[in-house]
Structures are given as C-alpha cells and as structure tokens.
Amino acid sequence: MQMNNFINLKKMKLLSKEPLITSKRFEERFEEADYYKAEVKKQLKNTLGNKLLYEEGLIVKTSIDTNLQKILDQVLINSLISQDKKYGWRGSIMKNNEADTDNSFAENVKNPFPKKWLKFKVINADKDSLIVVDETSKKYEINLNQEENKWLLDEKFFFNDVFFAEFINSSLIIRQIPKLNGAIVAIDPHTGKVLALSGGFSFELSEFNRATQAYRQPGSAFKPFVYISALKEGYSPSTLVLDAPYVVDQGPGLPKWKPSNYTDKFYGLSTMRTGIEKSRNLMTIRLSDKIGMKKILDTAKDFKIADYMDENLSMSLGSGSVNLIDLTNAYAMIVNGGKDIRPTLILSVHDKNGKQIINNEINKCINCLQNKKKLDFNLPTITSLQKNILDPRIAFQITSMLEGVVLRGTGKKISSLNIPLAGKTGTTNDNKDAWFIGFSPDLALGVFVGFDKPKTLGYKQTGSAVAVPIFKKFMKDANINSNKVPFRIPSGLSFVKIDQNTGLMTKDSDGILEPFIVGTEPYNNNIIKLDSLSSINNNSISGTGSLLIQ
User: Fold this and answer.
1) What's the half-sphere exposure (Cβ side, CA atoms, 13 Å) at 436?
2) N or C: the chain end with fewer CB closer than 10 Å?
3) How many helices (H) and strands (E) does the chain have?
4) Under a CB-based contact definition with an 8 Å cutoff, are residues 135 and 102 in contact?
5) What stretch of H or E contains 438?
6) Overall fold of domain 181-341+389-537
C-alpha cells in the first residue's frame, strides 16, 4: 500500500471530514523546444485530426523535461557552431558592394534566432577589431582577440559588410549559420518518455526534424545488435573472432566486396568485447556470417529498427537506414534490461470536458475503478504493461561491453566524466554521418551530425571526433548521474576476470571482470573460436563498396 502511495482506511475517514481546498494551477510557459512542440502537434494531428486539434480544445500532457530541453537545445546549437568553424569563414551575409543603400541590413536573410542574434554592419575594420553599428545605428566594437572570435583574426572585413553577432557576457561574438546540421534525443529508458528533443540547428530556418524524419545509415552504431544476436546464440564477451581479410563474391559481373577496418589493419584472434570496443568491421562481418543475417534482423525487429534493412551482410556494418529517435530508443531497451518501450512524447490527452481520449502510460492500475459503498474492496495495485524482448542477463552483457567502448574504445573521450556511461560510435562511408548513442543507468541519449544533403564531414571527422563531444557536453552540463549510480546487475550472472587478449581466465590486475551467464564461465579454458579464413561465394552483399566505419 505504501509502495503505491495509498493511505489507510483510518486516515481516509479522518481526511474525508476536512474541507477540500484547491490551489491555483501552475502553468509553465516554455517558449523553446520548437522541434519538440512541432512533433507533438504532428502526432496529435495524425491521431485525432484537424477538427479536434484546432477547434474543440484539448488538454495535452507531454513528457518534456524543460530543464533538460534547455540544456539540450543549447548544447546542439553551440556544438554545430563550433564544428562549422572547422570549415572556415564563408564571408558576410551581405558584402560591402551588395548594399542597395547605406541603411541596408540584408533584410532578405532569415535570422535563425531572432531573440538572440542581431545584425551588424562594419563601419571600420582594423587588424584585430571591428567598429560596427546595429540596425538602430548604435555603435559597438568587436574584439577579434576575444576567444570565440579568434578564428576570424586572419579574415578580411570591409566597410558595409553585414553579419550576425550575439552578446555573450557583454561581448559581441560573430556568428555564422552552420552548413551542417544535427539532432539530439534524450529518453527515459524505463518508460520510453522523450524528455528532450531537438531536430536541428534552428527551427526558424528549417522545420525538418532530423531526430524523427531523417533516415540515415547508422554505421557502427548498429553493431551492438549484431553482438546481441551472437550472445543470444550462446557466445560470450570472451568468444574469440578472427580479425583478418574477408572477401565476398557478389556474383557475375560484380566486384568482390572486401570490407576493411577503419585503420586498414588486421589484428588476428580477438575477443568479442575487443571487437565492439574497437569497432572492428571484419570481426563483425565474420560474426554476422556465422550467426546469419536473418537472426540479426530478427533482433533488429525486436528493437524496432529493422524497417529499412535487408538481409545482406553489409547491414551488419550499418548500411541500412534508421532515424535517431528509434535508434536511441533501441539503446534504451538495452540499458533497461531488455524491456519493450516506445518513444513517447504525449502521455495523455483530455478533451475540453475532461474526458481522457489518449493514455500512453505504461502502468495499469488494477482495481482503481471500483465503485462500492462498503469499504471491503480490494486495494488497487500498479502493474507494468511492459514485456521483455531480451534476456536481462544478455542485456547486461552488452551494456558491459558498451561501457568498455567508453572506458577503452572509440568513446574514450567520455571517460573523463568518471561516471558509469556506455555507448557506441557510428561513422558511415566517407565520414558522411557521425553518431554516438549512449546511456547512463537512467537516461539514453542519441546524437547525430551530418549535412542534409549527405557529403563528407571531412578527414577523420568520425563519430568519435564529432558526436562524442556533444554527448559528453550534454551529460556534463545536465549533471547526469552525478551520484555515480552503477549499471544494475540482474540475477543469474557470475563475474570472471578475463584476459582481453586471449579470452582466458587471468589473475592479472589488468584483467577485465567479465559477466557470464551462470554455467557458461570458461573455467576449463574452453572458449569458442571463429577463425575461418574462407571467402563467401554468394550474393549476400548489395553493392555498398568498402565501408570504413568506426
């Protein structure tokens, strides 16, 4: 009774004699979260129709956490601005010779943040400073030695040049609208509630939601589902898989498919843990061929990310398509112990008369609707409607392996936060898409960065270089898991110290405490090896070329 926050009969009788006191309803006005609000409106329109949405009046309860949303918005905006600086200054939004009049301020250029960014015109330019005026003719000085302006010190500015700038701590910082874009999604892994979401740099410039509408290749961010499939087949984190050249005959008239690791090196027999921590493509391909792509896609279907994937080996390297919110939700189902959830922005909807017309809560109250005069009815109980799509023990094994990605692998930049975190980087061919999907014990966060029209982000601009810092910044600014809550361990596991190089038991201090399902521990040092060097002669690949994915 206490667990479900009910009072006892004695207290109920006592309170029933007291007058009912109402308090004024608090309504928080939240002006940001344009992408979040637009997605809510879209879902309501699709579910209820225009008439009910726009004419009848609705009370809508969403899952947004306004504090997290503010932080998420700012982290994405600032990160995209910072990343864009790597591509250099593209010039003022209006050149000195483009002005029709001395009073022109590039009126045709849309402002991405009307309340924050202002237009300024150059009236004098020195080596390390600019004298500018705003649209009211008020004069200001911009210091190019200011830390955030230093990237412009070698650029040329001329009389009448117009650009955006923003006041930061009383200093003017010159801004440039980024060419690249991105998205972030934060999900409560226990309920599926979408706590915060941003689908791009500026809703003012583009209403296209890159978190929900953009379907892109996830690259190596898909690999955890390959390894989950292997664990379901009885393999363990210490299973040895050969990292060596691999050739696939795609059929007559087609070139042989020769996938390679990001480093273009081969590392011999390595544990599955090492394979995912270091994002080894060849190990993933060899593992996928052994398991079979059908089983891997079945796993992807369980995690709701298989809509745009085919049964060919290239899918194991993330050549299918998925959107950010679904992929983040899939990772959320890993950390919650394999419980089925769906990303939810709308918790409930009531009409103008108070009648509930939508209820997306995942818990059901038993005996809550009893209407008896006598007080002999059964006490209500709360039960979860969630089902398990994965053995909780396997869910913890893959969680532990993804924690290794942060501690030792491609997500190592995050380890300096010194809190329990796990996740996986993803980078597609030619560095066109950069991902990091990760989680703490109580929050799943997905990050995507890429151009709207896919093109390379640049040399070495991988998920590790581009998306990981955004994930790290959000986790730090939002103070996620500040109490250092560890990942929850289900029953039925035992922990054995393993040499990561050999997959065998060890007593060395640098050994990894590996989780095994009870009864599968390598006490006799008999471990599974996938060490076949043979080529595959079938049509299992569909012309993806040589994917270099990290």
Assistant:
1) 29
2) N
3) 11, 22
4) no
5) strand 433-440
6) Beta-lactamase (3.40.710)
Give Cα separations from 486 to 335, 419, 421, 441 (angstroms): 11, 8, 9, 7
Q: Contact 332/192 with Cβ under 8 angstroms?
A: yes
Neighbours of 499 (CB within 10 A): 17
d(CA 152, CA 169): 19
Overall residue count recorded for the chain in this entry: 550
One pLDDT digit (tens) per residue for the chain, 550 residues? 445 567 788 888 888 888 877 766 555 556 689 999 999 999 999 999 988 888 888 999 999 999 999 999 999 999 999 999 999 999 999 875 555 555 678 888 999 999 999 999 999 999 899 999 999 999 999 999 999 999 999 999 999 999 999 999 999 999 999 999 999 999 999 999 999 999 999 999 999 999 999 999 999 999 999 999 999 999 999 999 999 998 888 788 888 888 999 999 999 999 999 999 999 999 999 999 999 999 999 999 999 999 999 999 999 999 999 999 999 999 999 999 999 999 999 999 999 888 999 998 877 676 676 665 555 666 777 777 789 999 999 999 999 999 999 999 999 999 999 999 999 999 999 999 999 999 999 999 999 999 999 999 999 999 999 999 999 999 999 999 999 999 999 999 999 999 988 999 998 888 999 999 999 988 766 666 676 654 443 333 332 222 222 2
Contact of 463 with 219, CB cutoff 8 Å: yes
Residue 94 in contact with residue 100, Cβ under 8 Å? Answer: no
Residue-range domain boundaries for the chain:
91-175, 181-341+389-537
Domain 91-175: assigned CATH number: 2.40.50.140
Angle (CA) 550-481-393 rounded to 5° is 65
Kindly tell me the burial class for residue 136, based on how many C-beta atoms sit within 10 Å of its own C-beta (0-12, 13-18, 19 or more). Answer: exposed
Question: What is the spatial distance between Cα 504 and Cα 237, in angstroms, rounded to a whole number?
Answer: 11
Torsion of CA 449, 452, 454, 456, to 10 degrees: -50
